[in-house]
Design a protein that fits this description.
The protein has 375 residues and is of the alpha/beta class. It is built from 10 helices and 11 strands. α5 links the parallel β7 and β8. α4 packs parallel to α5.
Amino acid sequence: MTGTPVRLDLSSPTRGPRGKPPKHFVDLTPEQRVAAVTELGEKPFRAKQLATHYFTHLTSDPALMTDLPKASRDKLVEGLFPTLLTAHRTQTADQGTTVKTLWHLFDGAKVESVLMRYANRTTLCISSQAGCGLACAFCATGQLGLTRNLSTAEIVEQVRSAARSLADGEVPGGPTRLTNVVFMGMGEPLANYKAVMETVRRLVAPTPDGLGMSARNVTVSTVGMVASMDKLADEGIPVTLALSLHAPDDELRSELVPVNTRWNVDEALDSAHRYFEKTGRRVSIEYALIRDINDHAWRADLLGEKLNARGRGWVHCNPIPLNPVPGSKWTASDPRVEQEFVARLRAHGIPTTIRDTRGSEIDGACGQLAAEEDE
C-alpha cells in the first residue's frame, strides 16, 4: 500500500457533518407530493403534473411546464425543486460515448457519475456517497475517506440528468433512453441504505411516479455488508446484487477490503447466496485482478470451489483488470495471467466475463473516481 492507510469507517452518518440537503420533490412519496403542493396553495393534481415533467419529460425547468400557469410553476419549482447538483466539469472518452461528470453538491461536496453508451444499451454509474468510508486499498474513492451520504434526490438527479442528455441526443449515436443504472460510483451503497433504496424505488416506479425502469437493469454493488445484503434480499425488488470480493481468502481480503474483518469471505458469500435463493437473481462477483497480488491460479481455483460449494447456476464472475490509480504501486495483471485466471474459473463451471474498462483514460473506470478538480 502507499501513503497513510485510511481508517475503515462504518459509522454511516445520516447526512454527514456538512448539513442536510434541501428537501426536493424526489425525496417525497406520491402522497407527500400532493401534500407539499397543497401547502403551497395549489390544487392536488399539480403534483401529478410535476411528476410527469420530472420523471417522464426529465425536466424541472419551469419554462418547459407550459401546462401550468406561469405563477404556479415558478412558485412550485422554487419551493420543490432546489438545485442540488451543478455540473462542474465533463470529460469524454471512446469517441464521446463515455461521459464522466464532476458534480458540485449544494454544500461544496463533490461526486462523479459516468455515462456509457454501448451498441445495445446505455449504462449510468452513479455515486451514493461523497467519498467512501470502506477504505479499500486499491480504490481511489476509498482513499478519500467519507465526506457524507447523498440524499435520495441527489442520487436520482444524477440519473435524470443523464437520461435527459441521452434523450436530447447529446451523446453520439442519436437520441436514446437510459436502460441501466449501476450503483458502482463513489461510496458504498449499502452504507447509505435508506437513500439508496428510496432511489431504487424512484427508478423502478411506473411513470409518472418514477422513471419506470426494470429492476433487473439496476445493479447495487457492495463490498460485503452482510446485514444490509440480507435486508436487501427481503425488499421484494429484484435488483442485481454485485459483491466486490477481490480475494477468496480472508488473509488477503482483509488487507484489500478492510470490511472483511467485520464480515469474512464465507459470510459474504453465504449472504450473496441467500440473496439468490430469495430473489432468483443471479449474483455478480466482482474481482479486480491485481498483478502478483490476487491473480494467482490457486486463488482462481479456491474462488471456484467456494462458489460451487454453495450450488450451481447462482453466480456470475466479473474479473476486472485493475484500473490505474495515481500513486499506487499496483497495476493490472499480465494478460496471460488474466486469461489463465478466467480459464480456471470456467473450468469450475463458473460463468465468467472480463469486465469492460471503458473510461480509464479519464479516470472514469472502476475504482478511479476521486472527484479531482484538475484537468
